[in-house]
Structures are given as structure tokens and as C-alpha cells.
Amino acid sequence: MSSHQDKTLEDSQKAWEHNPANPFNWSEKKKWSIAALVAVVVLLIGLNATSVTTPSLVIAAEFHVSDEHFTHSFWPVTVWNTGAAIGPMVGLPLLENFGLKNGYLALYVFFTFMLIPQALAPNFATLLVTRALAGLCGGILQNALEQVAGDLWPVDKDRNMSITLYTFVYVAGVTLGPALGSIVAYLSWRWVFHVQLITFCVLFPVVLLILKETRGPIILSQLARTDKTLAKASTELPHPPLNKLLYEALARPTHLLFTEPVIFALTLWAAFCFGLVFIMTQSIAQVYSTNYAFSDAASGLVQISLFVGECFGFAACLPQNNYYQRSAARNTVDPGVPIPEARLPLSVPASLVGLAGGLFWYGWASFPHVHWIVPTIGLAIVGFAIMVIMTAVDMYITDSYTKFAGSAIAAVALGENLFAAWLPLAAHSMYTNLGFQWASSLLGFVALALTLAPIVLVWKGRTIRDKSRFIAEAKYTREIPSA
Questions:
Q1: With contact defined as beta carbons under 8 Å apart, do 260 and 406 qualify?
Q2: Do 403 and 473 touch, CB atoms closer than 8 A?
Q3: Residue range 114-143: average pLDDT?
Q4: Which of 139, 212, 59 is nearest to 421 (CA)?
Q5: How far apart are alpha carbons 279 and 288 in whole angstroms?
Q6: Mean pLDDT, rounded, of the chain
Q7: Structural Rg of the chain based on CA atoms
Q8: Would you state the pLDDT for residue 482?
Q9: How far is 388 from 391, CA to CA, in rounded Å?
């Protein structure tokens, strides 16, 4: 490339860097209006994932589905999460390369449409098929917020709050689903979906009005058609063929999951936490109905205690973010760059005391003679830990696998949704055969074992990252146009 061509490219990139149409240059008000809107959608989709758990026995009875030998009533949640595990691996790369807005709107409309057959399902098979399709779309919409944050804020410091918010609404939505089911199911289990359908329809004009195209490369390509000063920067953008794009979207997350010890260990940790939210939809109903004669609806409301803990966890993550930013001052390897391991200190006690301790508390307080508020406090402690841990994992992997962050997060999301889909199927049998105390204790011991992952990373994280080929390749200075 000649020096003249170099100069032309540099001028074109600078023109785009300072262009008001560049999402990085939008006002904070505009950025946060989009991020907040997408966060609301994430929360609402989470409600759809688990709100069906509270009236699950009523649904099973209506469709003549028996739980005598297996928890068949949980299949509507299992198929939803299985779809949510698969969808983002294909859908997110497509949104990234072809633009967010139109794809997001199409998915939103299809997800809303899928609420109709869920509400009117004449048989169990129809409910399962439409739930699977809803999960397929819902998983993409749920994970879009993280992509939006990367489109709007180029610097980690600016993205911290949006990613923390994403994790909170992602977990809070599925946590509050049973509570929604408890409130609405008094009318009919079908009204659980009717209410969601009304909500999504009312919200659609707001989505249509506020949501903008946030993908910088897409906006740049559109502007370059009429603005010659941006043409050169646009031609330098990568345009991979669709087959290569889909192959990498499916192959790279799987490869990372099974070849990178960091991603494998942290995925197990985060997936266990996310799976616990779904296990508790089964455990709480069993424990509180047996020990305290709570109805299914009342047991669903107990799930709010997890949400309360998650709120405290969200608040605790904010000073943790500040601690991470201050770590840049002591980074001797990459001066001025925050240290990824500075994301983890709070997660270690959260896992030891909050997750494991909370599970032991919940288990050994689950006796009829102990007031119901005591095990409920244990659940709140577990909720606190889940929020802290999942935020730490998300941010640590994003920091460590910069260039491959999308694939690394897709690997974690795959594990989270598969755990959430299949682990709870064993919950009823586990709590029946082991008893309430030892079933929760077994989960507590697993939490203790998984705490080794952050301890090792805090201790030897730098050494482990230096030995990773993928992390070495992921170190690059991101140019504005490719963000």
C-alpha cells in the first residue's frame, strides 16, 4: 500500500472516528435509553423462561402428564433453555455482521407471536414446541445487551455499569418468573402467557421508537455510499462469507470451552450458579409445601428472596468495578491497563460464604419446626452470591479473551443454559431421596469445590493467561471502525 493510500485510509478512519453518527459519539442519554430498553426486554424474556414453573402441576394435570416416575412437568422449561443455549451461537454473529436493529425487531416480533400458541396450546406437545422456539429467539434477545454495550462504549470503564446491569436483569428475570406465575396463575395458567403477550405488545412501539442501529461497521457502510470521505474506511472492514461466519460461530465457542482450562472452569462455576436458580424453582416448592404447607403460588413468591439477594449483589459489584479500574496503576506488564484478576476478589468470599454457606444454611434450616423465614434468608444469601459470581465470570472472560470475547461468552452462555435446562430435572428426585438437608448440602459441597477456580486465578491468573495461545492472540488494540 502506497503512502498516499495510507494517508487516505488514515484520514477516512479519523473522519469516522469523529463522525456524530458513530455510536461511540452519541450522547450518554441516547446510549442509556437504548441500553435500558434492551435491559427491560432481557428482564421480560427471563420471566417467560420460568413463570411456567409455578402452574406446572396444573398444566401437567390438564394435559394428563404424570410426574410419578420423572419430572415431566418441567419439560416446558427444559426445552426453552435448550433453545436459548443454541440460539445465541448462530444468532449473535448474524446480528453482529448484518446489523442489530432489523434482526432484533424481527426476533422481538417472532418471540411475541410465539406467546399466542403458548397461551392457547391445546396439548402438551404444542406447548413444548412453541416454548422451544421462544427460547431460541429469547436466548438471542437476552444476550444482545452485551453486544449493544460493546457497540456504544469503546472503553471498559464506560461499559462496566452496562455489563453489570445486563447480568442483573438476566438473572433477575428468571428468578422472578415463578413469582409472576404465582400472582397471575390465580386466574388461569394461560393468563401467565396472556399477561406477557399484552406487555410485549404494549412495549413494541417503544422498542420501534427508541432502538437504533448500534453496529458501527453497518452505519459506516451505509454512510460510505454517499460520503466519499468514509469510503476507504468502509472498504477496510472485514466481510467474511456466511458459511465461514456460521462455522466460526459454532466451532470456536465449542473449541474454546474444551481446550481453554480457564473458560471450562469458569463456565462450570457460572453454569452451576445459573442452574441453581432453576433448581430452586423445584426445591422451594417441595420444601415449603412439605414443611410449611405453602401452596404452589405461595412457594413461587418465596423465589423473591433470591431476587432480594441479587439486588444486594448488584450493589456490591459497583465498588468491585472501581477496584478493577484502580488496578491499572499497579499493572507492571501492561501499564495503564486494568488487571483481569482484579475482577475476582469479591467472588471468592461470595462463593465460599455466600453460595456454599447459603446452601448449607438453606438446607439445614429446612425443618418444619424452624420458622420459614430462616431458610428464606439462606436463599437470599445464595442470590447475592449468584449475582456476584456471574458478573465476575462475564467480565473476567471479556477482559482476558478480548478479540475472542464473543466466542468465549457464547461458550459460557451455552453451559449456563444447558445446566439450567437439564439439572433441575433431577432436583425433585434428589430432594426426595437425600432429604432436604443433604440435597442442599450436596449442592453446597459442589459450590465449595468450584470455588477453587477463582482462588487459583487470583493466585496464578497471570501465569495461566501467559500460557494460553488464545489469550495471547486475543491481545490487540481495537480500532474504532471494527468495534
A1: no
A2: yes
A3: 96
A4: 139
A5: 14
A6: 88
A7: 23
A8: 40
A9: 5
266 alpha-carbon distance from chain centroid: 14
Closest-CA residue to 176 (of 294, 310, 359, 80): 310
- Sequence-distant (6+) residues with CB within 8 A of 75 are 124, 128
C-alpha distances out from residue 20 to 26, 156, 220, 223, 481, Å? 7, 21, 11, 12, 13
**pLDDT over 50 (residue 229):** yes
Residue whose C-alpha is closest to residue 443's, from 264, 268, 265, 276: 276
Contacts of 194 (CB under 8 A, 6+ apart): 119
Give me the DSSP letters along 421-477.
HHGGGGHHHHHHHHHHHHHHHHHHHHHHHHTHHHHHHHHHHHHHHHT-HHHHHH---
Q: CA-to-CA distance for 442 and 371, rounded, in angstroms?
A: 23
User: pLDDT digit string (tens) for 183-204?
Assistant: 887 788 999 999 999 999 999 9
pLDDT at 70: 86
- DSSP conformation class of 344: S
Cell 396472556 found at: 194
**What is the rounded distance in angstroms from the CA atom of residue 252 to the CA atom of residue 307?**
34
What pLDDT digit, counting tens, does each position of 256-310 carry? 889 899 999 999 999 999 999 999 999 999 999 999 999 888 998 999 999 999 9
Contact 273, 347 (CB under 8 A): no
> Cα angle vertex 408, ends 136, 420, to 5°?
45
Please state which of the ranges 61-65, 243-247, 251-255, 432-436 shows the lowest mean pLDDT. 243-247
* pLDDT at residue 481, rounded to an integer: 39
DSSP 350: I
In this predicted structure, the answer to whether residue 4 has a pLDDT above a threshold of 60 is: no
pTM equals 0.91
Residue 198: which residues within 8 A CB-CB, separation 6 or more?
none
b/e string for 135-149 if b means 16 or more Cβ within 10 A? Answer: bbbbbbbbbbbbbbb
Read off the pLDDT of residues 379-429 as tens digits, 9 standing for 90 and up.
Answer: 999 999 999 999 999 989 888 886 677 778 888 889 999 999 998 998 989
Write down the H helix ranges in 336-372.
347-349, 357-364
Say how far apart CA 30 and CA 34 lie, in whole Å: 6
Cβ atoms 177, 301 nearer than 8 A:
no
Rounded CA-CA distance 352/249 in Å is 35
Residue 251 cell numbers, joined? 466451532
